[in-house]
């Protein structure tokens, strides 16, 4: 296997990297190394963990075009990021390399062992400089701005005088540890709105037995998954054709990641029911010290009672967990529901970075000026390090 051959060459303890077909890196030894990396990563990202990324690749990369970039220190896996080469960048015919994501992956930060962030980017960029293929530049999507991993990338580009830019930034809701659920709720939601929500909950309880359940076990998981998929598809996502159950691949992905994550104790399921009927359902994925609020659905027939909001109020119990410091909403910027309850914000950025020789970098420099001008026109304020010059 490619993994064993590579590891055998690295027993001296030197730092090396590898670009591999992801199927060639799926044996038990590599998966164990992958899980160890996730447990020691500088920034948690469940979308890059083996139990989530491998099913996603199975469902969405049937042609096996995705490569895994891995960083090793001897036999120790210290970094991992999936990469793909795309022929277009937006409306431009600009072949480029980017970290591979899919529509249900909401963070692109690679898994990097604590203390190895600079090594990770140095080895990745050196590898792409030596063999960029058809890619004219590197595009890294959905990094947490200000994190150790993103800061290491920025610093390395500055030190190497490598042209780069933060070309887009969005801020999404974040729940941050530091207050009790009750205190947080009173601070975040104005008293008039709290009164209205109490009234809605009381009126809803008049319809029948109202129950709330929180479960992090595997008991009844298969039935819960089917209930969630059905509930989501009955709503606006089903009408728009964007529900998980609208496609065989996303339905399978949801079932596989919940099953795999639950077996590792990383899944928390919440639901609000009326006489046993699910009115709102929510999935959190935990990866200490962080958490990710992955998917939620509610019964639109009961929208007047705000069941989704009532469930999110219950979800504030995350603040009581000593092993979690934050929860990423994974929501779009300006989401009208979650932004009104979670007051913290997490900045997520898209980076464009020069790779290859002088010819590629000249083309990239011209393209980057155009992209930055368009970003400014959209009132996005990117950070441009182009004045630092390029490597020759």
Proportion of beta-strand residues: 25-35%
Structure annotation, total helices: 12
What is the succession of H and E elements?
A: HEHHEEEEHEHEHHEHHHEEEHEEH
Helix content: 25-40%
- Runs in which pLDDT lies below 50 for 5 or more consecutive residues are 1-12, 380-392
Total number of beta strands: 13
The Cα radius of gyration reads 22 Å
Largest sheet: 13 strands, mixed
Structural class, by secondary structure, is: alpha+beta
Distance between the termini: 37 Å
Average of per-residue pLDDT values: 92
**How would you sum up the global shape?**
globular
SSE blueprint:
Blueprint: H1 2-8, E1 15-21, H2 28-39, H3 50-60, E2 67-73, E3 76-86, E4 96-99, E5 111-112, H4 117-130, E6 137-144, H5 148-159, E7 164-176, H6 181-188, H7 191-205, E8 210-215, H8 221-234, H9 236-240, H10 248-263, E9 267-274, E10 277-287, E11 290-298, H11 307-315, E12 326-328, E13 344-354, H12 358-377
Helix pairs in contact: 3-10, 4-5, 8-10
């Amino acid at each position: 296997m490619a993994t064993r051959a590579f590891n055998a060459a690295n027993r001296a303890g030197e730092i090396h990297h590898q670009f591999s077909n992801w199927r060639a890196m799926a044996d038990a030894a590599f998966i164990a190394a992958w899980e160890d990396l996730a447990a020691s990563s500088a920034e948690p990202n469940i979308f890059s963990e083996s139990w989530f990324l491998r099913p996603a690749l199975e469902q969405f990369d049937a042609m096996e075009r995705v490569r895994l970039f891995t960083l090793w220190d001897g036999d120790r896996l210290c970094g991992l990021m999936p990469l793909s080469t795309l022929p277009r960048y937006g409306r431009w015919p600009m072949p480029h390399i980017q970290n591979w994501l899919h529509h249900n992956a909401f963070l692109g930060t690679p898994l990097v062992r604590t203390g190895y962030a600079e090594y990770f980017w140095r080895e990745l960029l050196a590898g792409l400089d030596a063999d960029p293929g058809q890619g004219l530049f590197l595009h890294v999507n959905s990094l947490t701005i200000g994190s150790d991993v993103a800061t290491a990338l920025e610093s390395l580009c500055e030190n190497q005088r490598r042209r780069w830019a933060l070309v887009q930034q969005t801020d999404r809701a974040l729940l941050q540890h530091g207050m009790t659920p009750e205190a947080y709720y009173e601070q975040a939601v104005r008293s008039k709105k709290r009164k209205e929500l109490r009234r809605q909950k009381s009126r809803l309880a008049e319809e029948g037995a109202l129950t709330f359940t929180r479960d992090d076990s595997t008991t009844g998981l298969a039935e819960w998954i089917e209930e969630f998929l059905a509930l989501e598809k009955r709503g606006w996502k089903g009408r728009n054709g964007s529900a998980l159950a609208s496609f065989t691949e996303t339905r399978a992905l949801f079932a596989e990641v919940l099953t795999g994550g639950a077996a590792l104790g990383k899944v928390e399921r919440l639901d609000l029911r009326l006489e046993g009927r699910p009115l709102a359902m929510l999935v959190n994925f935990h990866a200490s010290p962080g958490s990710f609020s992955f998917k939620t659905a509610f019964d639109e027939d009961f929208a007047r009672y705000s069941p989704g909001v009532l469930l999110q109020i219950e979800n504030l119990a995350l603040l009581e967990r000593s092993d979690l410091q934050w929860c990423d909403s994974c929501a779009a910027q300006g989401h009208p529901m979650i932004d009104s309850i979670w007051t913290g914000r997490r900045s997520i950025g898209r980076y464009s970075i020069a790779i290859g020789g002088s010819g590629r970098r000249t083309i990239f420099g011209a393209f980057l000026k155009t992209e930055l001008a368009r970003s400014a026109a959209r009132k996005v304020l990117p950070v441009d390090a182009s004045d630092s010059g390029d490597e020759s």
